[in-house]
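Q: What does the predicted 3D structure of Alpha-1,3-glucosyltransferase look like?
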Amino acid sequence: MEKWSLMTVTVLLALTVRWAVSLGSYSGAGKPPMYGDYEAQRHWQEITYNLPIRQWYFNTSDNNLLYWGLDYPPLTAYHSFVCAYIAKLINPDWVALHTSRGYESQPHKLFMRTTVFVADLLVYIPAVILYCFSLKETSAKKKASTCALCILLYPGLILIDHGHFQYPLSLGLALWAVLCLSHDWDLLGSVAFCLALNYKQMELYHSLPFFCYLLGKCFKKGLKGKGLVLLAKLAGTVLVSFAACWLPFGTDVEQIMQVLRRLFPIDRGLFEACMFSSPTHCPDKVANIWCSLSVLIKIKNVISPRTQLKLSFAVTFLSLLPACIKLTVQPSLRGFKFALVSCALSFFLFSFQVHEKSILLVSVPVCLIINEIPFMATWFLLVSTFSLLPLLLKDELLLPYAVTTPAFLAVCLASFSILEKTSAEDLQLKAFSLSLKGYVSWFKSFPRIVRSLFLLSLALMGALSVLSAAAPPPQRLPDLFPLAVALVSCLHFLLFLLYFNVVILWDSKNRGQKKIS
C-alpha cells in the first residue's frame, strides 16, 4: 500500500508541474501568418475532419500543403481526427474549414492543452510507472517512486509537450514496447513499437535496437527451431500492424507514395527545412554535427542534396554499427536499453533533417537507465534540455525552463546522490579501465576529474542561458548565442556518444539479465 501512496504523490507532483507549464505561452502564439506547432496540430484536426482521407496528404484547393501540411504517418492523422471530432462537438469554429486558420482563444487553448494531458495520462505516465516498478535493480519499492519522479520531472519533455506543444504518444508507445520486451512479451512489444513508428517516423531512431535485439533472440533460440518460429511470428506481427495502420491508404499505390513523400522529403537537403523562413526552424540552432560544421563550412553550398543524403546515411550507419552488432551477437535487455540511447544519439548527431526536438528521442531512453548510471544520465538530460534553449526562448518559455531545470537537478541530487556516483564502477567503466592495463592508475583520480567537468559544464550552460535570455547579441553576430548553445551541446553529445559506446562494447557481464533460451 505504501508503494502506491508514494507513486500517487509522484504522479500528482508531475501533473502539477505539467499544468503550471501549460499555463504559459505555446509555439507561435499570436504570430501570423504561420503561427507555430500549436496551429499545426489544430490545422491537422481541421483537415482530417473536413476532408476525405484520400485528400489528407495531397495539395488541393482545400489543403494547402505549404500551410502545415500533414507530414507524419497515418496514426497522427487518425489521432487528429479523433481530437477534431471532440472539438466539433464543443465548438465547430475550432475546426471549421478555412475560417479556423490561426484560431486562438482561451477555451480552445484549454481544450488543446487537455488533449496533451489526456495523452500523457493514458499512454506515457502509466508506462513510466510500470517500467519503474519492473526494475530489478531497485532494492526497495521506494526506489521505484524515486526513479519515476526523476523521469516524470525531466524538463525537456515537459517544456516541449506542455509548453511548446506536442503530443507524447510516440515516445509513450515506444516506452510500452520496451516494457513489453522486458517481460518477454515480444509480440506485444512489436505491436507497440509499430504503433509508435506509425505515429511519428522519427521513431526510426529506435528501430535498429528493436530489430537487432529481437533478431539476436531468434539467433540464440536457433533458426532451425524455436528461433525460426519466433522470427516468423514477429514478421507476421509487424506486417499485420503496418497493414492495419495503412489500410485506408492501401487501395491506391499513389496514395501510399504521396504519404511517403510527405514523410521523407529528401529533396529539402541535409538540414531541417526552413520552409517557412521561421527563426524557430533555423538549422543553425540544432546541436548536431552538420549544423555545427556549417558554421565553418557551408555544406549546403558545396555538396548537392543527393550527396548530402548519402554522406549522412554513411556516417550515421557507421556510428551505430558497433552497438548494433554487439546487441545482435549478445542480446540482453540491459544492452538493448543502452543501444537505444547510442543509436538514437547517432541519428540525432549525423542523420538527415534533424529538428531540435529530436533530442527527446535520445532523452527518453536515457531516462530508462537513470537508475543504473544516475550521474551520467542526469548530466545528459540537463544538456539535452539546455540544447532546446533557443526554441524555448522563441516560445517565451524562459521562466518554466529556469524553474524546472534546477528543480530536476535538485531532485536527482537528492534521489541518487549523483555526485557520489562518479567512480569508474559507478559509471560502468570498470571493464574499460582494466583493459587499459598500464594506464589504470590514471583512473584513481577519475571521480574527481568527472565531478569537475560536470560542474564546469553546469557553469557554462548556466552562463549561456543567462546571456541568451538577458544580453543583446552583437549586431554583426545576431545568432551568436543560439550558435554557442548548439556548439556546446553538440560537443557534449559527441562525448556522450563515445561514452555510451564504450559502456556497450566493454560490457560482458549483462548483469541482471535473464538467460535467453
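A (community wiki): The C-alpha cells above were generated from the sequence. The chain has a mean pLDDT of 90. The first helix runs from residue 2 to 22.
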